[in-house]
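User: Could you go from structure to sequence for me? I need the amino acid at each position, not a summary. Structure tokens:
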């Protein structure tokens, strides 16, 4: 699903212009990105939570050349789905 699909769906549900809904979605995503950059946790009840985690620096070997490379420390995004979303996904399989 693309951002455009979300805008189209919400626009049809609410009967609002796509431009207004598109702006709202952009603002929501920008706000979420800023919060994650600041190291804050985002929790969307009934959906899940987003947070960042620190990865330690490590060494790895290039399988083709055998050269050892150092991967620097970095932050990664972590998503944990809510129990209700997990139950919905499991019940759809059955």
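Assistant: Here is the amino acid at each position, in order:
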């Amino acid at each position: 699903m693309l951002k455009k699909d979300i805008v189209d769906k919400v626009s049809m549900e609410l009967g609002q212009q796509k431009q207004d809904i598109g702006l709202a979605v952009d603002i929501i995503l920008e706000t979420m990105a800023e919060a994650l950059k600041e190291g804050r946790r985002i929790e969307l009840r009934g959906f899940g939570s987003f947070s960042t985690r620190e990865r330690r620096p490590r060494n790895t070997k290039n399988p083709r050349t055998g050269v050892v490379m150092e991967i620097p420390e970095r932050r990664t995004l972590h998503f944990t789905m809510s129990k209700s979303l997990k139950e919905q996904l499991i019940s759809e399989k059955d």
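One structural detail worth keeping in mind: The chain has two domains: 1-38, 41-94.
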